[in-house]
Amino acid sequence: MSNIASILMAGGGALSLALASTYMIPSAVHVERTAIIDAEPAEVLAMAASTEGFQRINPYASTDPDLKITPFGPASGVGAGFEFDGKDGKGSQTIAAVSAKQVVYMIDLGPMGKPTQAITVAPTPEGTKVTWSMDTDMGMNPVARVFGLFMDRMMGATFTRGLQNLAAAA
Using CA atoms, how far apart are residues 34 and 81, in angstroms rounded to an integer? Predict the structure, then answer.
């Protein structure tokens, strides 16, 4: 066997091993950030469950002055939502569930995925503990699974900004 063939076989084996190892990375990704907000849980949930209220805390609106928001559905509650188009992407966000402790959003980013986000509240002596979280499945795509390793760092800052917006708006 020639040296070139040996090098190609070794390179192909290394590439196959690297590709196969990406399937050991979990496909499920969870990101969350928490803050204590000086507001009642019901006030936080009312803002989170309203399209207009959400725009007051929208972390993307505070960093993208050209963000386009197009509301649809009812003003608040299940089915309320909006389409967005900005520097960080385009898609839609729809309220899927509202309870006494949580608002759940279905996000549709087209080919980028369909994560679920939630704003969850719990009363505390200091105020309301608010947790902003996201869950998504990166699927079987090896590149997406590697990308998922960086989601906490990328989305965590966004959720922190949203919680800061919420604290200012409450």
Answer: 23
pLDDT at residue number 5: 66
Please report, for residues 113, 125, 128, the alpha-carbon distance to residue 52 in angstroms, rounded to integers and kept in the order given. Answer: 25, 29, 21
Residue 100, CB-side half-sphere exposure with 13 Å CA sphere: 1
> What pLDDT, on the 0 to 100 scale, is given for residue 121?
98
* DSSP for residue 100: S
Assign 58 to helix, strand or coil.
coil
Kindly report the pTM of this predicted structure. 0.84
Rg (C-alpha) for the chain, rounded Å, is 20
Lookup result for tokens 């990406």: 22
Cα→Cα distances 102→14, 25, 47, 110, 138, Å: 46, 29, 12, 25, 24
Q: In which region does residue 113 sit, left (phi positive, over 0), alpha (psi from -120 to 50) or beta (all else)? A: left
Place of tokens 């003003």: 75
Tokens of 164: 């800061």
